[in-house]
Amino acid sequence: MRHAAGGARPVASNVNPTVRRRRLGQELRRLRELKGMTAEEVAERLLVSQSKISRLENGRRSISQRDVRDLCGVYEVEDQRIVDSLMQMAKDSRQQGWWHAFGDIPYSVYIGLETDAESLRVYEPQIITGLLQTRAYAEAIVQGGSPESSEQENDKRVEVRLRRQSRITAEKDPLRLWVVLDEASLRRVVGSRQVMREQLEHVMELSQLPHITVQVLPFEVGAHAGINGQYSILEFADAADSSVVYIEGVTSDLYLEKPHDVQKYTVMYEHLRAQSLNVDQSRQLVERIAKDYAR
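That's the XRE family transcriptional regulator sequence above. Prediction below.
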């Protein structure tokens, strides 16, 4: 039986619902492009908004089996194996990840991606990155950053943050983490001097792990490649999953997946690494500042 969509293929499923949804969206976009249709044309055929088609394709919106059926009809996918595979992915993508047990988490899409990522590169200009935070530091950060939230809401955010850290402490296939911390994040007193001392000691301990690299960008560098703020680059083991640049916002987050955008941020990160102290020098600086907090 021929593939009317031009060589569509069955799609493997994945244990992570966020990644399932993302892969399914990528496949639906590929089918649309093979058909030579624009998102606007598809939306007109299905009597839906163009934004819905875009959200389905970028994995930011849950995809129903009915959505898949309708889109496969528009794209004239005749191979039932393809349709069945996509329908199953749509069903699986509606399952919930561990983070949903904590209720509405603003950055749940990111958590899903982080949970499935093979490696993560982070630049943090203001605070110690979440995966390296102690409980006391995380509590102070969450409370300070969300002064109008209830204690219950803040406690939930802290627990989610600590649960995420299982990715770097896992015995099998831990997340490979590379962090560039601005010196400001080491010197900003969050919680108390004791909290900071314990936090920096924790960073030094984790930096000894073979899959975790920590560098410090010193004040003396001046203007640098990360001057515009925090960002993360997530990479995945499966070739079907493109890298993602994540930029956290106050009311909404930004996910960049176009190769040109990812490449630009990757180059910026290489500049940051080159401008930072090397691993040994970074550890020495963290140790000196930790000792200052002990006085």
